[in-house]
Amino acid sequence: MPDKKFYILLCPYQLCYLIFKISFNLNDIINFPVTENFDFLGFTLINGMTMTGKYRVVYRTSKKKLKAKKQAVKEWLWKNMHGKPSDIIEKLNRKLIGHYAYYGISGNWEGLLKFYRYILTAFYKALTRRSQRAYLTIKRYYSLLKKHPIALPKLYVNIWT
Predict the structure, then answer these.
(1) What are 136-156's pLDDT values in tens digits?
(2) Sheet strand arrangement including 16-23
(3) Is position 13 within any domain?
(4) Is residue 124 part of a domain?
(5) Which helix (H) or strand (E) holds 5?
(6) Does residue 118 belong to any structural domain of this protein?
(7) Which of 38, 40, 126, 147 could join 81 via S-S bond, C-beta 3.0 to 4.6 A?
(8) Long-range contacts of 157-161 (CB under 8 A, 24+ apart)
(9) pTM of the predicted model, to two decimals?
(10) Measured at the alpha carbon of residue 76, what is the angle toward residues 116 and 71, in degrees to the nearest 5?
(11) Residues 67 and 137 in one domain
(12) Tens of pLDDT, residues 7-65
């Protein structure tokens, strides 16, 4: 059996180090956890295949981190629900753009969309709870979103090319 060496591979988009064991024979590469997925820096790393059948690490938003982020946004919306909706949307957009900048990598589009849809419903629920008299209809909510749009998800980094 040939001697194994450790190499450190720099992932510039996540600013992290992953350790791969690579043998001297280039055909004999030991993949990090062979069958298991694992969480690292807010992402779940999954062993996947490309459409051509080559090995690829697939990145998804960690379910635990996504759940915690949803809860934090919900609490923030409830604390700030009595402000002007345009001001709330402005602050919310700054938070969303930061979230998209971190999690907006290739293959994670579904995670960004889930978070965006959650924001739309949570913001609507917070606005409808502001008063006992006036109820915010969906029509008025969408007209508000036309005037002051919530930031759409965007992929900032393409890690597959």
Answers:
(1) 889 999 999 999 999 999 999
(2) 4-11, 16-23, 29-30
(3) yes
(4) yes
(5) strand 4-11
(6) yes
(7) 126
(8) 157/13, 157/104, 157/105, 157/106, 158/105, 158/106, 159/13, 159/59, 159/105, 159/106, 159/107, 160/56, 160/106, 160/107
(9) 0.74
(10) 60
(11) yes
(12) 444 444 333 333 343 344 444 454 444 567 888 888 888 888 778 888 888 888 999 99
Same domain, residue pair 68 and 132: yes
- Residue 138 lies in domain: 63-147
User: Residue 101 is encoded by which pair of tokens?
Assistant: 């900048």
pLDDT at residue 133 in the model:
74
Beta bridge partners, 48, equal 56
CA distance 125 to 121: 6
Instruction: Please report which helix (H) or strand (E) contains residue 65, including its range.
Output: helix 63-79
Q: How many domains does the chain have?
A: 2
Residue identified by tokens 């690579």 is: 22
Q: Using CA atoms, how far apart are residues 53 and 31, in angstroms rounded to an integer?
A: 16
**Same domain, yes or no, for 88 and 134?**
yes
